[in-house]
Design a protein that fits this description.
This protein is mainly α. The protein has 21 helices and no strands. Helices cover 57% and strands 0% of the residues.
């Protein structure tokens, strides 16, 4: 791969070949702005990260998590950009901050496609279709189309949000640059991999998928513009390698949730300060400046400030280590030979994936988390039971009434395939906030009556 293509600033849905004509704001900074001003991003403020938002203290939601991942991603991208520009690539007019801007924009949008109640919501969507297999036959869906529903993936929904337009809008969705869209796609293939992919070396990008069947032509266009390598021997089914900057987005996300979830766990009373110290001091001891850190820490008196300080220093340490891992694997990334998580290749990986991961799992099994996941599962499943009937049983009176509740962009169109009509129903549910989904479910099940 080469950076002249990988840094493509051409916007999806527009013909202008290069959108970097404004000196004061690059194409990739505009990508960041378009995401942060989008309604999809605003909805993240009412989507749970891990803990239900309490009244007495602050914990992270999907919006604050995304902002923090974007900032960590920008730091990693700037470091990577400075390094890449020393590698004697021919990249006219490139500068360090371009790399940081791309990573920051992709990281900012990395959770746009998360349905209400997070992974529990994803599972509810998948389970609904698995348990209603008749829908595939009734609507005549292909295996590829059906796989999008029974293996529902928030990453693919995020790409769909970014690249789709509403009826009255210009084509291209948010009209982001090819570089940002390629960097967003951590799993650049469809929901079904070619049979020969099993013979390829283990690749982390095969763990999930980033593109629904409905957006596959769009992603082929993005891959062509950015020069992503095709790993597939099947001429009818492409499987692309990752954009090299994807690894930085993934690392930023991993670093943030591993460390910041501990801080939220402390605020919720599930972890004591002494336990945070036991988890993070061994990580910080990897740094030559640990004695200075320890001295400053010892002068602090407020426990909350101590936890915040340990969190900040730990993230900084992991950013440095992730950058070192990026440099070490850089040549293999550029030839698609490297396909693993950078955070699996750090000096601190035994700590990060050992005791810290164990504590994360402990927090995910606390009562408030489990209760919200279980409740959220029922809400999403129940909403799908009702709104999918708009497509599967359109002549029924209740289905016709439900159709009248749909916003314009989610109403099934007669000239669309049944797959696209069904995808609109899932879009409607998946884009809801936690609170809206819960209130609508209560109303439709008679638990609440509209005022």
């Amino acid at each position: 791969m080469n950076w002249n293509q990988l840094l493509s600033s051409q916007r999806f849905g527009e013909e202008t070949p290069n959108y970097d004509s404004f000196v004061h704001r690059s194409a990739f900074q505009r990508d960041f702005d378009r995401i942060i001003f989008s309604s999809a991003f605003r909805r993240l403020q009412d989507k749970t990260q891990v803990f239900p938002v309490p009244q007495f203290d602050f914990v992270h939601n999907r919006l604050t998590h995304s902002l923090e991942v974007a900032m960590v991603g920008r730091s990693l991208g700037n470091l990577a950009g400075e390094f890449i520009l020393t590698q004697k690539h021919e990249i006219p007019n490139a500068h360090m901050s371009m790399f940081g801007d791309i990573v920051a924009a992709a990281a900012l949008g990395h959770d746009l496609g998360n349905p209400p109640f997070g992974h529990s919501g994803e599972k509810a969507i998948s389970d609904f279709f698995v348990q209603n297999n008749y829908i595939k036959t009734q609507l005549g869906l292909s295996d590829f189309e059906w796989a999008d529903f029974i293996k529902y993936e928030g990453n693919a929904h995020g790409f769909r949000i970014m690249t789709n337009h509403h009826p009255d809008e210009v084509q291209g969705g948010l009209r982001l640059s090819a570089a940002t869209l390629a960097t967003f796609a951590k799993y650049p293939h469809q929901s079904i991999l070619p049979s020969h992919s099993a013979a390829l070396p283990k690749r982390v990008s095969f763990k999930k998928y980033s593109v629904f069947n409905s957006e596959w032509d769009a992603f082929n266009e993005i891959a062509s513009k950015t020069g992503l390598l095709n790993l597939s021997d099947d001429a009818a089914q492409s499987v692309y390698c990752r954009h090299p900057l994807v690894f930085l987005v993934e690392a930023a996300d991993n670093i943030c949730y591993r460390i910041i979830d501990l801080e939220d766990g402390y605020k919720q009373g599930f972890l004591r300060l002494s336990e945070i110290e036991e988890l993070l001091f061994p990580l910080l001891q990897q740094n030559a400046g640990f004695k200075t850190t320890e001295a400053k820490y010892s002068r602090m008196r407020d426990e909350g400030e101590k936890v915040s300080y340990l969190r900040a220093k730990s993230i900084n340490q992991l950013v440095d280590e992730a950058f070192d891992a990026f440099k070490f694997s850089y040549e293999d990334m550029m030839t698609a030979q490297f396909d693993a998580e950078l955070t699996d290749n750090l000096v601190s990986t035994p700590i990060l994936e050992g005791p810290i991961k164990k504590s994360n799992l402990f927090l995910y099994q606390r009562k408030p988390v489990l209760e919200k996941e279980l409740a959220g599962y029922q809400v999403i499943y129940g909403l799908l039971e009702r709104f999918v009937s708009v497509v599967t049983r359109p002549q029924e009176m209740n289905a016709q009434k439900l159709k009248l509740l749909l916003p314009l962009q989610f109403i099934p169109q007669n000239n669309e395939s049944k797959y696209l009509q069904l995808m609109r129903m899932v879009d409607f549910v998946a884009r809801m906030t936690d609170g809206y989904a819960l209130n609508l479910y209560r109303t439709l099940t008679g638990q609440n009556l509209p005022r």
